[in-house]
Design brief:
The chain is built from ten helices and ten strands. It is an alpha/beta fold. The structure holds manganese (II) ion.
């Protein structure tokens, strides 16, 4: 059996696309099973509820020598602790390559698209697309609209726009209403603690030789997190301290106005506490290169 999963602290693309990837591999004659590597967020629950499907179970088996297929990540730090002792047989992803080493030659699909869902659709042959159940089309559409912030992120490509139209028809949902409700669920932070907000979309990277942790919170207005802002910054400082990371970054993204405010903690953040970057929506396409160039210029510090 091939175990299919996305990154830890999973977003909708990581869970929805892993689920459909397992279906696709099964159609190719393989025995595949989907998992999730953490709690699903409110948006992912909304997508599965709309599709009438049950979330895949949380991964709870050792991966030593098991065959695995990675979805939406390749950075070892974003997978389970025993990932590098597993046999990685395949990858579908749309992020930078982040230092993975495999036991055998894997089947690798990586392209700069708006979502892993888009890539999976491009990999499907005509028969697989034609026979895709509408419920699974809803999962792919949800993952695509989530990752691209309803096609507004600069990561959006022509393929993503075309796919959104095709999946809108195949899924049978009212796309406008689905996208609106999805973004409402995505930015619903009410009642969530600062610690949960920081942890639920936290990713680890090595950038210019520095261990960096980046949490992103997407809101439709920064006022949504005003009451927990002090706690968030305290949790960020604690994260940098406890993890030993040189730099911890909180990326607070206003998806309506289209900008991010960055907050920094850790020993490499000496020259900056925060800054706002107009037009910045994407961690992978905008923040990572921005950090890479800043850290390289200043000798590993901001
Ligand atoms: Mn993704």
């Amino acid at each position: 059996v091939i175990h299919v999963f996305g990154h830890i602290n999973p977003d909708s693309d990581a869970i929805c696309t892993a689920f459909v990837t397992a279906h696709w591999l099964t159609g190719r004659g393989m025995d595949a099973r989907a998992w999730r590597l953490g709690e699903a967020n409110r948006e992912t629950h909304f997508i599965f509820d709309t599709a009438g499907l049950t979330l895949p179970p949380r991964l709870d088996i050792p991966l030593q020598d098991e065959r695995v297929w990675l979805v939406d990540f390749t950075e070892p730090a974003q997978g389970p602790d025993d990932l590098l002792r597993s046999n990685i047989v395949g990858i579908t992803d749309h992020h930078r390559l982040g230092g993975l080493i495999t036991q055998l030659p894997p089947e690798v699909h990586i392209r700069p698209l708006g979502s892993s869902a888009t890539l999976l659709w491009l990999l499907m042959n005509a028969e697989a697309r034609r026979t895709l159940p509408p419920t699974l089309a809803i999962l792919l559409l949800g993952a695509l609209l989530s990752d691209t912030v309803n096609l507004r992120s600069p990561t959006t490509t022509e393929d993503d726009i075309r796919l959104a139209t095709e999946l809108g028809v195949l899924s049978g949902v009212n796309r406008r209403a689905f996208a609106r409700d999805l973004l409402t669920a995505k930015t619903d932070v009410s009642g969530l603690s600062a610690q949960l907000l920081l942890d639920r979309d936290l990713k680890a990277f090595v950038i210019a030789g520095t261990d960096v942790r980046i949490a992103q919170i997407e809101v439709s207005s920064p006022s949504q997190v005003a009451t927990v802002m002090d706690d968030l910054l305290a949790a960020l400082a604690y994260l940098a301290d406890q993890s030993g990371a040189g730099l911890a970054v909180l990326m607070l993204t206003d998806i309506r106005a289209g900008f991010s405010t960055l907050y920094f903690a850790g020993r490499e953040s000496v020259n900056a506490a925060s800054c706002s970057v107009p037009g910045m929506l994407s961690r992978k396409k905008q923040l990572l290169p921005w950090l890479e160039s800043r850290l390289n210029q200043n000798g590993s510090s901001l």
